[in-house]
Predict the structure of tRNA (guanine-N(1)-)-methyltransferase C-terminal domain-containing protein.
Amino acid sequence: MKPLHGIKLYLALLHHPVRSKDGSTIASAITSIDLHDIARAARTYGVSGFYVVTPLADQQAFAQKIIGHWTDGAGAVYNPDRSRALALIRIRESLNQVTTEIGRQEDLPVRVVATSAADSPNQTGYPELSQALAKQDAVWVLALGTAWGLTAEFMDEADFRLAPISTGSGYNHLSVRSAAAIMLDRLLGREF
């Protein structure tokens, strides 16, 4: 798919390494609604690809069954628009696999941007990241965490930390699919 404005941006929905409610590192379950809604937002905003990351074989099979229904099965005939969106999804065991694959495909440095609902030191705002994306001198992976978010170790290893979505309401507990759509709009959407 040709990216909008020439920007090479990928999404990675991580189900590992993420945190449980008590803060321990876990692998979370895939939900079909996340696959559908994030893929549709990714296709709408011209994202180059959407990776779902889990080391769990049963979760990989579950995701592949959903994707196959909408890209090769009856769903592809029933709803071609949904088929085009879910065709963006690739299942991988780790983010390292994702960045290695993208680096080979694109022949550019790969930059990982970690996301969180919490403020953190050295975070990058949306205008600054949007300007960095526009330079087109790297390929970008926007890493989204499931469960209670990406682990602290993952956040520390990322190239950038994106500022959380803030509305001033004092409440910030969006679903990952809603957060993904808002982030894409803030980074790639047109201003009116």
Observations:
- The two ends are 25 Å apart (CA to CA).
- Residues 57-71 form the longest helix (15 residues).
- Residues 41 and 93 are 23 Å apart (CA to CA).
- The first strand starts at residue 9 and ends at 14.
